Amino acid sequence: MSGTRLSVIRMANDIARNFAAQGDAAAIEATAEHITLFWDPRMKATALGALQEPDCGLSAIARAALYHLAENAANG
């Protein structure tokens, strides 16, 4: 796994951890919103690509937030 991918996974996990106290559903939504607002397209693409690897190191909240983003992108 590339250093860039590891960095993006670490950042997604850090963001998710910061929102975790809000409860899972709110943390997933807040993490997805943060990534949408503040990450550039390359970072988002790298993170979404990590979803293809089941053991890439994403936390449950970060993984769910990225799936949420992928679903929103697919739906328009």
Poorly predicted tracts of residues:
none
For the sheet with most strands, the description reads: none
- Helix percent reads over 70%
**Overall average pLDDT:** 94
Number of E strands? 0
> What is the helix/strand order?
HHHH
Annotation field: number of helices: 4
Strand content: under 5%
Evaluate the radius of gyration.
11 Å
Throw out a few tags for this protein:
single chain, 76 residues, mainly alpha, 4 helices, 75% helix, 0% strand
What does this structure look like?
The chain has one domain. Helix 2 crosses helix 4. The chain is built from four helices and no strands. It starts with a helix and ends with a helix. The mean pLDDT is 94. It is mostly helical and 76 residues long. The protein is globular, with a radius of gyration of 11 Å.
